[in-house]
Amino acid sequence: MQRYSIFSLARNALTGHRNWPQAWRSPAPKPEYDVVIVGGGGHGLATAYYLAAEHGISNVAVLEKGWIGGGNTGRNTTIIRSNYLWDESAAIYEKSLQLYEGLSRELNFNIMLSQRGVLNLAHNEHDLKEMSRRVRAIRGNGVDSEILSPAEIEKLVPAINISRDLRYPILGASLQRRGGVARHDAVAWGFARGADDRGVDIVQNCEVTGITRQGGRVTGVETTLGPVKAGKVGVVVAGHASVLAEMAGLRLPIDSHPLQAMVSEPIKPVLDCVVMSNAVHVYVSQSDKGELVIGAGIDSFNSYAQRGSWHVIEGQMGALVELFPIFSRLRLMRSWGGIVDTCPDASPILSKTPVDGLYFNCGWGTGGFKATPGSGWAFAHTIARDEPHPINAAFSLDRFTTGALIDEHGAAAVAH
Amino acid sequence: MLLIHCPYCGPRDETEFGYGGEADIARPLEPEALSDAEWADYVFMRTNTRGRFKEQWVHSHGCGRWFTMVRNTVTHERGETGVFGGVEPEADG
Amino acid sequence: MSGPQYRLPAHVPMGGRIDRETPLAFTFNGETFTGYAGDTLASALLAYGAFPLARGFKYHRPRGIWSAGAEEPNALVQLETGARTQPNLRATQIELYGGLAAASVNAWPSVDFDLMRINDWLSPIFPAGFYYKTFMGGGFGAGRWWKLFEPFIRRAAGFGKAPSVPDPDRYERMNAHCDVLVVGGGPAGLSAALAAANRGSRVILADEQAEPGGDLLAGDRAIDDAPAMDWVAAALEKLGSAPEVTVLGRTTVAGLYDDNFATAVESVGDRFGPGAPAHLPRLRLWRIRARQIVLATGAHERPYAFPNNDTPGVMLGNAVRHYAGRYAVVPGKRALLGTNNDSAYRTARMLADAGVPVTLADARETPPAALAKEAESAGATVEAGFAISAVLGDRRVRGAKISRILPDGETSGAPRVVEADLVGVSGGWNPALHLASHRGAKPVWREAQACFVPGDLSALGVWAAGAATGAETLADCLEQGYAAGRDAARAAGRTKRTRKPVLKADDSAAQAPIQPLWAVTSRRPGGRKGKAFVDLQNDVTVKDVALAARENYRSVEHLKRYTTLGMGTDQGKTANVIGLALMGMESGRAPETVGTTTFRPPYTPVPFGALAGRDRGALFDPARETPMFDWHAANGAVFEDVGQWKRPYAYRRAGESLEDAIDREVRAVRDGVGAMDASTLGKIDLKGPDVATLLNRVYTNDWSKLKFGRARYGLMCHEDGMIFDDGVTARLGDGHYVLTTTTGNAATVLNWLEMWLQTEWPELQVFATSVTEAYATATVAGPEARALLSRLDSDIDWSDEAFPHMAAVTGTIVGVPARVFRVSFSGEASWEINVPAHYGLSLWQALIDGGATPYGTEAMHVLRAEKGFIIVGQETDGTVTPFDVGMGWAVSKRKDFIGKRSYSRPDTARPDRKHLVGLLPLDRKIVLPEGGQIVADSEQKPPVTMLGHVTSSYRSPSLNGGFALALLKNGRNRMGDTVHILKLDGGADPARVVEPVFYDKDGGRLRG
Q: How many CB atoms lie within 10 A of CB C524?
């Protein structure tokens, strides 16, 4: 791998940038791999990367039906935080944030992690009580979190309407300073380049159409490019988890919904941190390019269409303009939809399955991007050792049978 | 925004309706007779179909009636609607 | 700036859309200019020459006006200042008004001298995606370099500036339905609207421009041997007199959604600028549900790329034609046109007619003979087989080079210098298939025209016509428009047969096919000097596309994301297809196999204010108020938001702190009598023979034996066994009950009951009706409550014998019919009086006049917490069972109910789950923090072992100190233990675990 640096940029400038190598290869799939990862999003690529980097398993293929990073990885609002309520969640999201903090260097690919702080607003007495509980739990888990007064919020976010006359006035907020945003595509590309460099085959435009099994054990996958044998198969396909599960005769506690996001035209800096509000249903940050990146709640109905309904956008714009009256004359430039797989307890599934050698990683709902490296790291461990790492043991499928759910509904930006 | 055909009121905007998810998940008559796994299957597991999907909706800002509707979850193309419990819509629907 | 020297003199018969009688003064970057009514800001500025008015996003090179419409990538301006300022508007779409003030964006210190131009000289080390390759960490630790550099990138990025004060303008929404929505008012759109209208359809025609006409506005076309604009005027008159037709001018259809739902933005007051009449909204958002849609959205001309193609004075060829024909502006003295298709011949003709010497370089070896002859006879010079290969000049076109072009885009032989200060380029046409793309139509590559056309959407009721489908002649546009309008009307059920009009256009067939040409810039090593831009807004060059291909960012989406091609405010309207084609050439693929980009709504940017509409301020989720609200407000109430309701939190008297007020209210209830407005509690009337069966299934306890005139408390759970609501239900008669819910859950519970009743148990005969707002409710509580009630005019016997705890009685009170339930959430003897809502205030006044102290939600919270009564959402969070909160007594063992089976699951049956307990801080002076985390070992360093949390904590005047409720792991087996509650700033408060009932444990008072 040719290392990236300011020096390599300067060196390549001399030759007109004609000698840069491919960031990753585009090989045809081999007939057989030790591990096949289904899904070339951030989580799948991270899984492949950590299989190779941490567990020495490099005879791995990532099979992607479209282009890598093309699902939710490339469609989210890029927020990263680890301010989760329950111990189990704190452990895996904090692991992920810590991996993020060293990721540009580890991957030799600038993912543009920008720890600008994530502010969660409280608008009523109930919000304040919830916030107090959450901040104290988060700090108990050794994760940074603090409570801000309205005056402190206004200082940090001058554009916000801190007036008590607001329909839902801002009474306080919690702030995770280590939270922020990162360049979503770069996370996928960085992991892809790192995995490829360690021998992983990344195969795009290769849709998995079947999961082959023998005697309760997985033996490989059928694809649009032919069958591929595999000792183990890890499925990381976000919105389509249920479709892949059905191929293996499994059922999942998952519903797929549209989630819309949008950006404004690029403007000069006006918002320095990420602002989220559960009560009025909106979250917003400003990208390095100057666009306001805005998200809200999911559409109510099940869908695999990557598009949502108009009234959801009107609702979140109303909320945004309430919170930020000076944004009213800015303009919506682009809106789009992703497919999110929601779990009943708003927590993910990283789990072995009743089929030996078949593993599922899904159910991240609206918040999977922030978990990308942590999810890949834990999933790689689960696949390599055929047992979950302690940080994902609680996120197994059998919690729906035992009742040991991890209910994080309050933690998602907007209640499902 | 979907245009949903309420079998009782006719076509109305999606914003008049509430969503009830997958249809035909019958509540077990004897829950105590089920294993934990069978109970979990009823409570949590869903087919989450990609393609033609039978789901339930309620015309919450209209007649208040629940009904079923077949919808393709990829194209959003609508199929037939159905009613519950033999409460048939008026002929002029 | 010397005068408008590029405005054609009045005797030249061009510029038909401006009104020379109405000059308008305006300013740009502080300098005063004059244009005319009918001008756009762009045309008015171009009358002064193609000077730089913007800077490129990345390299800050000087930029001028590139197009004449929505596809403009360059000429973004900041319009006006102060509260009505608006960033990033396209000068090509701003209608000129008197006094308009606009300025350049993103240049410092000025657009004429921009220091950031240094990026252009440094560009060899800034190829596409350079930022992914550096600032990873280096010697300064992880990410440190990036932290240093990012603020500079942020400041450099972005175009205009947000306003700094709230928006003073008003926005409206309008809902509309129609048979046929026609998008676009050019020849195809007008034809379609006429055809649909003739069939009696309800038609909406939306056109984005200041006036309909589309390409005909250039004024050089003829229909039936008369100026085509005469036909446009006649068509508009016909449509205007049709009763079911609405023509929406200045209205951009921004997005199409499922079931032909369209959103459109109409500029109403906006076009008048800050001086708009006050009664007009700035914008109106139309929400249109159309049975059928005709897309007559036209096409966008695309350029081909060549070195320095971004120099001010280089424009799209057809834009040159429109500026001349429509606005009488030709921003140059000598013109060079480059083309690979027929359309530039009209521009050449127009320029020649205007007296501007023009050279037309046609990349095709054999240009269409008739057109060439016509152009040459008008005075143009045609150079066949040539393409523009470079532009000379930096801030302004000083000349250009043309070269003999080979089919692969490489040039041959030495270039020739052409004298020119205006360069128009036409590389072909891209049908505007954005809206079709919103509806999911995959674009189809049409090789013969080297463009994508929209896929067939007729099954969804979407029809395309005219240039939007690749039609090249006016005759085809008129023909297709009529056919689409007719087909759409027919599909909408309008079957009236009409006679098709016969129209004669001034053309009939295309003359010669296009010869695809994407870039004139050698891809060979040591190739041509100078940047050749593909995406002008995001400064993406031909070399950047090649780099993306080299590094394997080859999927169209990777290309876009890696280079930012097409990610600007123009969504790559002129750039995307070239980028795709170049990627195809680099990677040896045809354009259609590289992929197609999916256009996203909106077509052009839409102000947030228009999306929010009137849903702002008081109308953003309007507050719900009880009938007693005005009394509360007049009597010192501090309100809190509970769900959508405003509830009195406490009533402050003069000189009283909030804490004092709460203490006083608590004491009043404990020692005398208090009154609380409980109208917000959800109330559901249940009628029918099977109500008890329903209650048995949805509540955890047994309802079979609830007698007439009695009330009972119930817990409602989901199938997972977790509590989601609670409340009292009273039986008012045979088959008549009234169920109360928590304030926030009223609608949810009604929906829940209806869902089960209709979908699962249709055999149950129960009618559920929300009566929350039909009744006002006042709770009267305290040892003196009975005395107060007895003093009021009432036919109710308030004695304990006649009206015991948990009884429900109907009668009259102060002359008003009332339903009265004796229930207590305070621990005192307490009556909940429900009267018809409009009598609420008089009941309330009678209670206050009778001596009751009004108390708010916080006193209520203290009172109930002293009794250990839970609040759903405070003691519970969706993970708590009835057993967890010590309410196993309310769970029937004899019957099934929703959630019951879940209690025997292994985790739910654990004896050491978190239990509701009481906590008494060892230091009784303190109040433990709500949400405080409980630990056994206060010395442990994070991550600490947290055993639970404080759910409610107050100072109790009755207990004379702090007390709390908490959920504590294995709590019922820790009675008497000392635990520690962590403080936010370190340290911990010790507290003793006690039973969660602090006051009147045997309940004597509430039964008193």
A: 8
**Is the pLDDT score of C839 beyond 80?**
yes
Ranges of residues in chain A whose predicted pLDDT is under 50: 412-416
The two tokens of residue A200 are 């992983």
Reported as a single tens digit per residue, the pLDDT across C15-55 is: 999 999 999 999 999 999 999 999 999 999 999 999 999 99
Q: Name the residue ranges covered by the structural domains of chain B.
A: 3-83
Across the interface, whether the CB atoms of A102 and C561 are under 8 A apart is answered: no
Q: Cβ C133–A9 below 8 Å, yes or no? A: yes
pTM of the predicted model over 0.90: yes
ipTM of the complex: 0.97
CATH superfamily of B3-83: Folate-binding superfamily (3.30.2270.10)
In chain B, which residues have their Cβ closer than 8 Å to the Cβ of A305? 73-76
C707 DSSP assignment: P
A:C CB pairs within 8 Å:
326
State yes or no: pLDDT of C676 exceeds 90.
yes
Distance CA C768, CA C766 (A): 6
Provide the percentage of residues in chain C whose pLDDT is more than 70: 98
Contact partners for chain B, using 3 or more CB pairs closer than 8 A, are: A, C
Q: Name the residue among B58, C612, B45 with its Cα closest to residue A301.
A: B58
How confident is the prediction for chain C on average, in pLDDT?
Answer: 95
Tens digits of residue pLDDT in B25-79? 999 999 999 999 999 999 999 999 999 999 999 999 999 999 999 999 999 999 9
Cβ contact C70:C322 at 8 Å: no
Q: How confident is the model at residue C667 (pLDDT cuts 50, 70, 90)?
A: very high
Single out the residue of C744, C789, C737 nearest to residue C767, CA to CA: C737
Classify residue A169 as exposed, middle or buried by CB count within 10 Å of its CB (0-12, 13-18, 19+). Answer: middle
From the list C305, C530, C541, the residue with the least C-alpha distance to C423 is: C305
DSSP sequence for C743-808: GGGHHHHHHHHHHIIIII-TTS--EEEE-TTTEEEEEEESTTHHHHHHHSSBS---STTTS-TTBE
- Chain B nearest-CA residue for A302: B73
Residue A274 pairs with which residues in a beta bridge? A118
Say which residues have a Cβ less than 8 Å from residue C531's Cβ, sequence separation at least 6. Answer: C59, C61, C123, C307, C308, C310, C541, C543
Amino acid identity, residue A370?
A: K
Report the alpha-carbon distance of residue C823 to residue C711 in Å, rounded. Answer: 8
Which residues of chain C neighbour B8 with C-beta distances below 8 Å? none
User: Chain C neighbours among A 123-152 (CB < 8 Å)?
Assistant: 123-126, 129-137, 139-142, 147
**C139, pLDDT greater than 50:** no
Looking at the complex, report in whole angstroms how far the Cα of residue C291 sits from the nearest Cα belonging to chain B: 11
Q: Which helix (H) or strand (E) holds C854?
A: strand C853-854
Burial (CB < 10 A; 0-12, 13-18, 19+), residue A339, is buried
Domains of chain C from N-terminus onward: 1-166 (3.10.20.440), 173-299+431-491 (3.50.50.60), 303-427 (3.50.50.60), 521-616 (1.10.10), 910-1008 (2.40.30.110)
